[in-house]
Amino acid sequence: SAVISQKPSRDICQRGTSLTIQCQVDSQVTMMFWYRQQPGQSLTLIATANQGSEATYESGFVIDKFPISRPNLTFSTLTVSNMSPEDSSIYLCSVWEGSSYEQYFGPGTRLTVT
Amino acid sequence: KQEVTQIPAALSVPEGENLVLNCSFTDSAIYNLQWFRQDPGKGLTSLLLIQSSQREQTSGRLNASLDKSSGRSTLYIAASQPGDSATYLCAIGGSQGNLIFGKGTKLSVKP
Lengths: 114, 111
Description:
The structure holds 2 protein chains of 2 kinds. By secondary structure, chain A is mainly beta. Chain A has no helices and 11 strands. Helix content of chain A is 0%, strand content 52%. In chain A, strand 9 and strand 10 form a beta hairpin. The interface between A and B is medium-sized, with 25 and 24 residues.
């Protein structure tokens, strides 16, 4: 199974600033995903990030607010822009291994916006 | 729109008890169903994945079943242990790898 790391593991940020979250995978994967878990809620898919193409965003999420980069098959970043307290969440990246169909998650980034 | 519901929201049992966690979904046109475990401060750990053509999967003390026609899945945990305490998430997988999650069942196993 893929091993995924995320940086930072947690951060406290001020309203109006931006934070970039990094996701590193120990093997090459085609499909990477970014999820958000708001306090007390389950995970919601933000976008799908495939290498070599633009990220595909789910309803309710826009590129200006959550720009994503996917420069190669082992790395992706998610930026949370112009943050507000409502952006306080855990952000998780995941990869989908087509051969096994299982999805593996990183440890998450806990973001608090003050 | 697919909706996933997990019952109960929380469960507390004594060690050694067998237990069942429930997951229901509204659209039977699923690609697969995956059960995860989430521990505080950690990411999600994949427990079992059931393809849409399968009826059940087993791993150790865990057994997951899938009934697409009724829109239900169950996760059976045998001989529960305090180390099983975590939040268990059910997720419906689409053909593009996207997952739709339930809100989870928070399990507490008392020694």
